[in-house]
Amino acid sequence: MQNQKGVMLDWVRKVHQEKMLDLLVDQDLGPHYDRIEVAEMVQVTLLCTQFQPSHRPKMSEVVRMLEGDGLAEKWEATNRPAAEAPVHDALGYDQRNDSNGSVFFNDYYHENDSSLSSDEARSIDTVEEMELSGPR
């Protein structure tokens, strides 16, 4: 089953690279769909299905991308050649390419920030956890 998922993702990546996204859309829709929206959803999907879970965007980033905020910048940053990529992007991610040429994100933020005390770092962790857990 896991191998089938990998094959499907490889196919979607290829379809995306070849700009043949119509292959991913239900044929019953005919021309009645937004091509730009399909392209954006495929980009979000590819960002969210990277091999290493720690390389995937956070759920809060995914929500923002789905709402139309930041996807273009995130996608551009992931597809920049490694030599041109900054060490850390604006969201605090270290950008690297894996051996397949797929780009992923390494969680970086406050654990690499030597200017934060351990209490400040724990405080940031608590705030992030509360934001993700929602109302009780």
TrEMBL record:
Keyword Transferase: yes
Alphabetized InterPro entries for the sequence: CR_Ser/Thr_kinase, Kinase-like_dom_sf
Record region (Disordered): 112-136
Compositionally biased region (Basic and acidic residues): 112-125
Domain of life of the source: Eukaryota
Name the UniProt record assigns to this protein: Uncharacterized protein
Keywords: ATP-binding, Kinase, Nucleotide-binding, Transferase
Acidic residues composition-biased segments: 126-136
GO MF terms held by the record: ATP binding; kinase activity
Species whose genome carries this gene: Arundo donax
SUPFAM superfamilies xrefs: Protein kinase-like (PK-like) (SSF56112)
